[in-house]
What we know:
CATH class of chain A: Mainly Alpha
Largest sheet of chain A: none
Distance between the termini of chain A: 16 Å
Largest sheet of chain B: 2 strands, antiparallel
Oligomer: heterodimer
Helix content of chain B: over 70%
Number of strands of chain A: 0
Shape of chain A: globular
Strand content of chain A: under 5%
CATH superfamily of chain B: MetI-like
Shape of chain B: globular
Strand content of chain B: under 5%
Distance between the termini of chain B: 42 Å
Structural class of chain B: mainly alpha
Helix content of chain A: over 70%
Number of domains of chain B: 1
Strand order of the largest sheet of chain B: 1-2
Number of strands of chain B: 2
Number of helices of chain A: 14
Radius of gyration of chain A: 24 Å
Largest interface: A-B, 110 and 110 residues
Number of helices of chain B: 13
CATH topology of chain B: MetI-like fold
Amino acid sequence: MSALAVHEAAPAAGTAPGTARRPPLRRRIALVPTVTLLLGAVYTLLPVAWVVIASTKSGHELFSTFTFLPGTGFTDNIKDLDAYRGGVYWTWMGNSALYAGLGAVLSTAVSAFSGYALATYRFRGRETMFNVLLAGVLMPPVILAIPQYLLLAKADLTDSYLSVLLPQILSPYGVYLARIYASAAVPADVVEAGRMDGASEWRIFTRIALPMMIPGMVTVFLFQFVAIWNNFLLPYIMLSDDEKFPLTLGLYTLLEQGANTPALYTLVITGAFLAVLPLIALFLVIQRFWSLDLLSGAVKS
Amino acid sequence: MSSPTSRRGYGVKAAPYTFLLPATILFALFFALPIGYAVWLSFRKVHVSGLGLGSGARQEVWAGFENYRAAFQDSELLHGALRVLGYGCIVVPVMLGLALLFALMLDSEKVRLAPFTRLAIFLPYAIPGVVAALLWGFLYLPDVSPFYFVLDRLGLPQPDLLDGGPLYLALSNIAVWGGTGFNMIVIYTSLRSIPAEVYEAARLDGATPLQIALRIKIPMVAPSLVLTFFFSIIATLQVFNEPTTLKPLTNSVNTTWSPLMKVYQDAFGRNDMYSAAAEATLIAVVTLLLSFGFLRASNRRDKRAVSQGGAR
């Protein structure tokens, strides 16, 4: 927890340089930056606001009333969504949580092992391994997903939970972040001191290094959680049984059916609204103890 | 004390490889093997003998560069690449321009509501591309869109956003909306790693905030601009989700709109894995060449680039 607090405090120090010696005459708000940022926020929040309001409208209201006027059909929309194909929407949401939650935990573990090894040991082939892993970032996902599908088909694993879970565990970006955090957060002399005390390498990692790497690992977890939750292509290629669909794929199939039947629009809209809620909530909660800046690999030493 | 030095030495030597074992296995199974398999398939084709009936009538045979030749001559693939090029020419400058602008504004003094606006602009990062495309897709539909409502009331012409030239803008807007926040955070992080003393001197010399931004801040965050530019280009080349999601809403997005959609269509729509593999390999090679060319060019320009700034 103490490491978390350090990371939380660090960004605050840089936000307002020279606050104390500001001349009183110019103590007004910087208008141009504030207005520019507010316009940006309006732009990004507009579709979100729209979906919140649109999800309250009944099918009839959606086409007849002004867009930003709340409707009266919210509970009915939820009921309709709940009734759609025996509540398959909630299955999708559960699947997304499973893929993203379990996948991100496993991915964070693999990233932590690899990042720690790459940061603290000097060994033959270290840079080669790192570079080869990083090259994975450059591979277009479709190009990986199609042969992955064919190979998993040979192992009779397509259209299964594993087919979506397994290919997403190794994240080149996660390994990259973990390496940066490990080299910044785990001092070499601490590892050496552990060795002098006769601790095994595994024990040094779990008892000494891992606690120091936690803020970075929270970042890797979040990054992977969002990446898997948002992934569309891999399940699109791997799955055909809609009981195993994640939300993204489920909503897509709903839209595909609904495009020609405006009656289904409200279903799609309500589904989209409920789909963005968990991630927005996650970010708002996590914001309190985690800095966004860590996502870009920023490390305060 | 408890373990002899020689055993400990061995443990230390073996440890990194043990720690890297899970990543290595996963890399071999889900990166190396599929890539190798795709390359292998790209040199194969199905030879049909007779009417193509019976068990031995369809045989996989060596095709040499035939699939590649076909891919190079495929006008639809070329058109897809050109469409994505046009799309990228809008997305990358607009998205990075906005990201830089917002980052500079966040970094300026006496700005109000910065934490709120920062989070709001970052928010789309948490929204799946499919959902983003879906939300904007509805906002582009005349029947439900507030924009059309306003245009209608004002008696202005109402363009069809899901067709022709405007379609590029409509698709670009989705990417800009989704990507600006993340890039803003990357640039902003590196802005904040600039020591305050650097500005002090400039301020004493009477430099305006605009001059400070143009002459000091932007050059100092150049490495992170290079990085975001690089990743934006790669992401643009791989566009798939957004046009696929908009497809049900309009006839102007066909199944082969972007090169990756074409690959998907060949693989699963036409069931021609061999052509798809050749096209996929071709796209991967182009991506890698672009990446390495770009990295080399930017390294040559500024050797310090890699170590500078919060983000690489």
